[in-house]
Amino acid sequence: AQSVSQHNHHVILSEAASLELGCNYSYGGTVNLFWYVQYPGQHLQLLLKYFSGDPLVKGIKGFEAEFIKSKFSFNLRKPSVQWSDTAEYFCAVIRMDSSYKLIFGSGTRLLVRP
Amino acid sequence: GAVVSQHPSRVICKSGTSVKIECRSLDFQATTMFWYRQFPKQSLMLMATSNEGSKATYEQGVEKDKFLINHASLTLSTLTVTSAHPEDSSFYICSAQTGYGYTFGSGTRLTVV
Lengths: 114, 113
Known about the structure:
The complex is a heterodimer of chains A (about 110) and B (about 110). With about 110 residues, chain A is mainly β. Helix content of chain A is about 0%, strand content about 50%. Chain A has strands spanning about 5, 10-15, 20, 25, 30-40, 45-50, 55-60, 65-70, 75-80, 85-95, 100-105, 110-114. In chain A, the strands form 3 sheets. In chain A, strands 2, 5, 6, 10, 11 and 12 form a 6-stranded mixed β-sheet that branches. In chain A, strands 3-9-8-7 form a 4-stranded antiparallel β-sheet, with no helix packed on it. Chain A has a two-stranded antiparallel ribbon with strand order 1-4. Chain B is mostly beta strands and about 110 residues long. Chain B is built from no helices and 11 strands. In chain B, strands 2, 4, 5, 6, 9, 10 and 11 form a 7-stranded mixed β-sheet that branches. In chain B, strands 1-3-8-7 form a 4-stranded antiparallel β-sheet, with no helix packed on it. At the A-B interface, strand 5 and strand 11 of A face strand 4, strand 5, strand 9 and strand 10 of B.
């Protein structure tokens, strides 16, 4: 069965620190990859996505992610976090075969201290 | 564009009653919608895939007779939690597939008392 793993469940950073959140998936075929953010009390919003092409993807609010096919990874990064980045971050994967279902990782709760 | 409206945002119901949650695509046609359930401090778990004009496809372990899904038009999918029990209390989220990926509703917090 396909799975999406986010190894960091809770991350606490100070403002201006760099961020990297890990995401690994277990499916060997073609995938589309996403990072979503859920701010407190709000619904899910798309940060960035990878379909094909340049494996380094830039998203909104200064976030980027790199798809490394050999490592089955799609880690999220931001060079300098802000207090407003406090949220929960979800990695998600779609298998580009018959399923086309969006499968989520368990999420990483990020707290940025001012 | 690609907005999904989910209603209600919160609902409290008594055990044994049924609750209907609506998910509407406002500015596009959604042939496929997805229903997720999110437990506190956990990820979104896919419950079922809703296809316009056909039966929904349920994930393993999801009771199709308890969670009735109807996708009668290209802009509306509904999830009805039948004979609700306290363990059905959760956050339910719908999602629609768009040309740009997936867009999500704002969710419905169901509390069964």
